[in-house]
Every structure is written in C-alpha cells, then in structure tokens.
Amino acid sequence: MATIDSLKDKASSAAQGAAKAAKYVASVSKMRLEIMKEQERIRRSYAKLGKVYYKDYVTDEEPDDAEYKPLCEGISESFRRINELREQIAEAKEAYNVGDDPCDVPSEEEVEILPPEENKKEEE
Fold it and tell me: What is the pTM assigned to this prediction?
C-alpha cells in the first residue's frame, strides 16, 4: 500500500513539474515574440526616419521636430518595452529555477561521474 502511495506522489510531483515547465516555456515564448515585434517596429521607424531625413536633405529644408519627434519617441518606447520584457524573462527564469522540485535534474556538482574502468569494476 505504501508503494502505491509513493508512486502516486511521484507521479503527481512529475505532473506538477511538467506543468510548471510548460507554463514557463509558454510565457517566455510569448515574451520573446513580443520582443521580435518591437524590434520590427524599431526597424520600420528607422526606415521612416531615414526617409524623412533624406527628404529634408534633398529639399534643403530645415528638420521639422513635428516629423522627427513621434518617430524618435516611438523608437525609444520600443526599446523601453524590450528592456521590460527582458527583465520579465529573467524574473521568470529565476522563478522557474527556484525551489526544491524532485523532478529537477541535479547539477554537475551533485552527480559523481566515474571513469569507465571504475564502472566496469562496480558491475562485476
């Protein structure tokens, strides 16, 4: 009876670990996708900014802040959003790695790796 309860506990723990991993991967993937979208917005804003600058250059006009300011502010906002998302990813990673989950893979320090000769001696 104790063996069955032990197996149930292990299976439950494994399922919780898998759910935690799936939630972590989904949230980080969503944030990375948002970062890619912001990077694309930045690229487009740079292109628009270049076109406005070139138009002013070709026509010998003075730069108009009304044209430049919204583009520059949009670029700055996208960079701020990317930095926020990167911080959220770091926090999610830290939260995922915290805790004593029995399903966690032990670090290299916790595992003793024996040379092949010693493995054969122990098997005999």
Answer: 0.66
